[in-house]
Amino acid sequence: MVKAFNQKASKRVTCHKKYKIRKKVREHNKKLARTLKDSNGKKKKIAAKVPNLAPFKEDLLLEAIAQTQAKNDAKKARKGTKMPLLVTKPEVVKPKAMAKSVSAHVTISQCDILLWVIDVRSVDECLCEEISNTIKRGKQKTFIFLLNKIDLVPFSVVRKWHTVLSKTAPTFLMKSTQIILTECEQIVPALKQILGRFGGAKSILSYLNRTYKEVTKIGVIGTKQVGKTCVVSSLLKSCGRTKAKRSIDTKLSESIRLTTTPGLIESESGGLLHVMDNCSKYMNYSPEVLSALSKNIRKEDAMFHFTLPEYSHPEGFLDALAIRYNQYYLKTPDHSAVGRLILKQLRDTRLKFYVESPAVSELATIPADVMVDVERFLFKGDALKITGSQLDIVIVKKEKKKRGGEMDIEEGDEEDLEEMGSGDESALSDEGAMSGEEMS
């Protein structure tokens, strides 16, 4: 084909030329790197290695280590000869953080009077026979019961437990708080509002000042999450102490000193207070907790507090709650979701509850000096009644699904598979016989 006179030459580069250009570029880059390396004049130091067969190898290595140590010492000495700065900042000594709590046995050994803090919602979980026997065996050691969180249960429950516990030791009512006062709030009238958030400390201090004239040391003990630290802060605030909480011992009056670090009573209880303390752990097993809780709740109380329709108790408790709170998953009641919802309500004290107290023939009257300071906090409403403090929670861990489409086969399924396999083999044998007859 004849080339037209006005047709331009092709811009396509041949492979020979293309590869030649790339080769020249690589050679040029290597040359630049080599010149840059030579211009710096720094060569890599090759670490001296002593062969294993060389004589006196250990002596040579020790000598090399000694030389290196001498060089480092000389370098440090040169740095130390520099003139120090004229202005030097003083080192700030940070105060050590105090322990939140110690063992109850330590507090008992150090103190003369023990304030035993009890959560009035579940008193049986807070009591411990071993600790009470230890206190009674000690010489000149006594304990006083403090029924805390009285604003979360009806007054009738508080009165029953006060009657039961006052037979063993002096019993006081308290509503504590953990708000810390500042120096300004001692002057501002807003102090009255803050002091109005807790009550019961004045009656305790007046009783201690009347009873004990000599110098006595007071300690606070109790199980987890009963309000030990709140009781300590309430006692300090009622005496006007704000910064005294940093010290271990605080002087409340001329004859009373308070140990600000409370003593912890270790208990392995399986009650509702233990569940609320480990709420994050039980959130994954909320249906098991609710099913165990339903056995300790009467049907009438559950229908009243959760506004439930008629249902079968306790088997249909979870289904009724899921329908009430509209919790579904794949058109079936979601027990896990409604269980988490109820546990959060219990944890945030939105749902008030209490454990039923033992039967009392005659209710004792609470002294007037105890009632004056806490009367405004008493709860006159109704709360969910639980018959037993112990919950028999049965947790069954679910097995994870295996990868690769493998399934866990139960015994019944294996028998079905064997029957299916035998049926397939018989069908194959029948087909073989039929094919043999046709060929014949």
Summarize the structure.
The protein is an alpha/beta fold. The protein has helices at 15-40, 57-80, 104-110, 123-126, 129-137, 155-165, 191-195, 201-211, 228-238, 272-277, 279-282, 286-294, 299-305, 317-324, 335-347, 368-374, 411-439; strands at 102-103, 113-119, 142-148, 171-173, 216-222, 249-251, 256-259, 263-264, 328-329, 332-333, 353-355, 384-386.
Largest sheet composition:
8 strands, mixed
> pLDDT below 50 for ≥5 consecutive residues: which ranges?
179-188, 405-429, 431-440
Number of helices: 17
* Backbone structural class: alpha/beta
The CA-CA distance between the termini, in Å, is: 74 Å
Query: Could you give the order of the helices and strands?
Result: HHEHEHHEHEHHEHEEEHHHHHEEHEHEH
Number of strands: 12
Strand content: 5-15%
CA gyration radius, whole angstroms: 40 Å
Oligomeric state, counting identical vs distinct chains: single chain
Shape: flat
> Into which percent range does the helicity of residues fall?
40-55%
Mean pLDDT: 78
Describe the overall structure:
With 440 residues, this protein is an alpha/beta fold. Helix content is 43%, strand content 10%. The protein contains 17 helices and twelve strands. It has helices spanning 15-40, 57-80, 104-110, 123-126, 129-137, 155-165, 191-195, 201-211, 228-238, 272-277, 279-282, 286-294, 299-305, 317-324, 335-347, 368-374, 411-439, and strands at residues 102-103, 113-119, 142-148, 171-173, 216-222, 249-251, 256-259, 263-264, 328-329, 332-333, 353-355, 384-386. The strands form three sheets. Strands 1, 2, 3, 4, 5, 6, 7 and 8 form an eight-stranded mixed β-sheet that branches. Strands 9-10 form a two-stranded antiparallel sheet. Mean pLDDT is 78; it is low at 179-188, 405-429 and 431-440.
